[in-house]
Structures
1.
Amino acid sequence: MARWEKVQNDGRIGIVPDIKVGMLTPGELAAITEVARRFGERIHLTAGQRLIILGVPPERVEEAKNALQAAGFGVGTSGAVVRNVRACPGKEYCKNGLQPTLDLGRQLHERFTGWELQRPVKIGISGCPNSCSEARTRDIGIYGVPSGYKVFIGGKGGMKPMDGRPLKIVKADRAPELVDVVQKVLDFYTANAGKRERIGDLVARIGFEPFQEAVKGRVVMVPAIAAEAKAVGEA
Ligand code: SF4
């Protein structure tokens, strides 16, 4: 479940405001800074483009959350949910950008962030193959190419990193279809994965082809895969 708080090792709380595509206006940053100044100790910039207000005493958490909400921020993400969508500045700001990222990233964030799943799903979108948002190590990664957007699935970092595999190219003039592609990948994953499987683990177990068929709209749930997933989850 999407939530605001992360319990620190000293029992104090880190509070995570919702930030879309790693972008803030100066006013928004000032508002977060003010909440941190009143209730916390430091602000941590995470590798996933989140800010965490660290050092909030447990008895002041509600007050701090209310202050963030009053400043227009929603609940950030942690746990087994679709996490905040990570984005590079894309063609809007970067001289290397081949495709824009920010509007699409916001659309993906608003549609999917906070969805409860078997395991965390991390999504990243970059404006070119330099992939500054690390498309190849996201569960669902996207980067711009001259003709449009290339979609990868199954990447992850952590102790057993995996490289994402290319799933599809969506033409630039059909960019809104990316939302539908992500929806189909998540639907297939939700219906078929075990409790412990990230998307890359599911690809490793069943192969890549079922995801390709899912994205074509041909399959959502494969009973044999889902039954086996139950065993994976309970193992
Ligand atoms: S991925 Fe490309 S467009 Fe995005 S910041 Fe890096 S170089 Fe620029």
2.
Amino acid sequence: MTATETALPRICDFPQEVTQDQCKFVQREGFIQFGRLLEDSDLIPLRFAYERVWEANPIEEEARANAAPGHRALSMEHFLDEPDIIRLIANEYFLRIVCAALARPPEEIEYAGGYIHRQRCQKAWDYEEFGWNGWHQDAQPSQAPLCHLNIWIYLDDCSKLDGVTQVLIGSCEQQRENLRKKRHPNDGINEMWGEQDSLDTGFFAEGPAGGGFAWGGFLWHRITPNRTGRPRRLVTWEYRHKSVCESEGSLYREKTTPEQRSLIAESLPEDKRFLVAV
Ligand SMILES: O=C(O)CCC(=O)C(=O)O
Ligand SMILES: [Fe+2]
């Protein structure tokens, strides 16, 4: 049985715990799917906030030459003033998953930034139009344990035909193995692209409205073409070990002023303010 045929661990709706198996899986593979983490009382205001942010930021980001067709993202400085996005930094289910995956107590975790993402749906697109196959990673491979995690939340039920994110199963282990054996970190990665290149053999991070998947590290991943014309609406929250934010900085620390950071801290429950640097 290949990795892609295996039934993969998946965290349930509103999890009270993350099991050992789920924990090991996310630390090995660099991702894990989860069910609903947001109640309608959080999800519905989040959708309205999402639409307001796009409406307030119509074009500039879309004009970025290196943006994926079908995909545009706005980073968190565009939604600092949206409490229905910001307060979710302290969501208990997000934190439960982050603490388990990053193997740290909540006090040693920090919010590092976030984005709102979408798929352009005026027309179908494919990778040929994209000009490349889309596979990339956002961080350099290392042998160290996972120290940052993205919580990736779909605002609507999102299937693989709606253009969810695809992850390259086995890509983190392959890179660790390469590092151990002193090979180039990407040895064998092209072959994996080939094996996981279809809707049947690939792994697509589908999720329900208010659910999605968590991922981090140096996982290889890509956006996938939207084939339904339904919008793919997505918001992300990124967390890291506090010590990493202190030593390396973060999008959050860079993109906010001290005044903004105090306001944000005050908008979180008192016992969760440690999540944001001031
Ligand atoms: O939109 C997606 O599905 C992938 C986006 C991506 O690669 C990223 O945000 O790092
Ligand atoms: Fe990426």
